[in-house]
Write a structure and sequence with these properties.
223 residues; ten-stranded antiparallel β-sheet; alpha+beta; mRNA Triphosphatase Cet1, Chain A; 39% strand
Length: 223
């Protein structure tokens, strides 16, 4: 898997309206989005010393984190994800999980994991043990995604970020989440080897700078 470039920008509500109109004119909505958006729920894992959190805050050049994620309250399709960052470039590995397997992980019943046919699940198992990883925080948010084929570009706008430390209720639609601080809208742009000029122009905003915003770190702060 190739590494991808990634930009993050904190934007405001007016920026969101402007970008939505621009992107509709030049890019395609993600085919999985209903009415242009979907809901994401993620469960993040970390060590007792908060290794992933501290490396993110400190800007460590080589780092990774594990999370489990599903969309639109649909627990029939759940992903284990490992996200790596090296020299500012990103790489993500994905493996499917069932709701039963996720519940087993939440209950610390891991005996099935080393027998998984998926290498990522086995790696996650070894790091659950060796790094003593455990569930730390739930993060919910709404995403508006756009795609542009040249450059394999993906542009997303995330908002309504909410969080909960009640990790045992990750699979429950009744899990109560709270706003993760002041409202934030996050623009993310990801691409492979080049970012087409048409997308560069579409996302250009006056006075907006690259951000190191982390939904995981925000969730830990307010969860």
């Amino acid at each position: 898997m190739n590494f991808r470039h990634e930009w993050k920008h904190e934007i405001n509500a007016l920026d969101l309206l402007v970008l939505r109109q621009r992107l509709r004119a030049v890019a395609q909505p993600d085919s999985h989005a209903v009415a242009g958006r979907y809901h994401i729920r993620s469960l993040y894992f970390d060590s007792p010393s908060d290794k992933a959190l501290r490396e993110k805050i400190d800007g460590v050049n080589r780092r990774e984190k594990f999370r489990i994620r599903y969309y639109d309250d649909n627990i029939s399709l759940i992903h284990l994800e490992k996200k790596c960052k090296i020299n500012g470039l990103c790489q993500k590995y994905i493996a499917p999980l069932t709701d039963v397997q996720v519940q087993e992980i939440l209950e610390d019943n891991l005996s099935w994991m080393p027998h998984s046919p998926d290498p990522l699940v086995v790696e996650f198992y070894t790091k659950l043990l060796s790094q003593r990883l455990s569930p730390k925080i739930i993060v919910d948010y709404t995403r508006e995604p756009f795609v542009y084929a040249p450059g394999n570009v993906r542009v997303t706008m995330d908002y309504h970020i909410r969080t909960s430390s009640d990790c045992s209720r990750f699979l429950s639609p009744q899990c109560v989440t709270l706003a993760a601080g002041d409202p934030v809208i996050l623009l993310e742009v990801k691409w492979d080897t080049f970012l087409p000029s048409v997308i560069q122009r579409a996302i250009q905003l006056e006075g907006r700078c690259t951000s190191a915003f982390s939904k995981y770190a925000r969730g830990r702060l307010y969860g």
